[in-house]
Specification:
10% strand; Lipoprotein signal peptidase; 6 helices; hydrolase; mainly alpha; 220 residues; transmembrane helix; two-stranded antiparallel ribbon
């Protein structure tokens, strides 16, 4: 009896301690993807703003600058449409769409547990913010401003860093979806953790219970 009492007291744990440990363990992984999303969006937004500023300062009133002849040029354009000069003239509508995308990303971040999806959403958020910044602050006016594009791959519409981030984020989203990775980090198609190859998993009985069982040697 003395031995059993000692064992029982050594494994006992305060429920409050268990709760705080669980909260701490869940909080770390939960914050990491959100931090990744925020960092990715901030880097993309900063890169987009800086490169557009340089493009306006160096390419205005200037012809195309050949980087790789026949492949890559730099040429400044003002785009009233969407990425890659699509939907020209729908600037106000596209500004509202960008605001909606930003709202969805921020809302989705609350249940984000996958670093891969954090990069996807960070790329989409940074790209949307980059082009929305142009539409708000550039001529001809708020929500109607024209987006600065300057990278021209031949046989491809002119684009900018924000457009590239949006496309890369979309490609990565497809890859993660095909691999069955969800926003919460789970893999679709993984076997149920409660069921093994041979059926339902059976928990091993506690050592002291096995020793006292009616069928074991200790129970005789």
């Amino acid at each position: 009896m003395g031995a059993e009492t000692t064992i029982g007291s050594s494994v006992s744990e305060d429920p409050a301690d268990r709760g705080s440990a669980a909260a701490g363990g869940a909080g770390g992984p939960a914050r990491r993807p959100v931090a990744t999303l925020t960092a990715a969006a901030a880097v993309i937004l900063l890169l987009d703003i800086v490169t557009k500023h340089i493009a306006v300062a160096t390419l205005s009133d200037r012809g195309p600058v050949n980087i790789i002849p026949g492949v890559l040029d730099l040429r400044l354009t003002r785009n009233s449409g969407a990425a890659f000069s699509l939907a020209g003239g729908a600037t106000v509508v596209l500004s509202l769409v960008a605001l909606a995308v930003i709202s969805v990303v921020v809302f989705t971040a609350r249940r984000l547990r996958s670093v891969g999806w954090a990069i996807v959403l960070g790329a989409l958020l940074g790209g949307a913010l980059g082009n929305l910044t142009d539409r708000i602050f550039r001529a001809p006016g708020p929500l109607r401003g024209h987006v600065v594009d300057f990278v021209y791959l031949h046989h491809w519409p002119i684009f900018n860093a924000a457009d590239s981030a949006i496309v890369c984020g979309g490609i990565l989203a497809v890859v993660l979806s095909l691999r069955g990775i969800g926003l919460d980090g789970t893999h679709y198609g993984d076997p149920d953790p409660v069921v093994g190859d041979g059926g339902a998993l059976r928990a091993d009985p506690p050592a002291d219970a096995a020793g006292r069982g009616g069928t074991g040697p200790g129970g005789q």
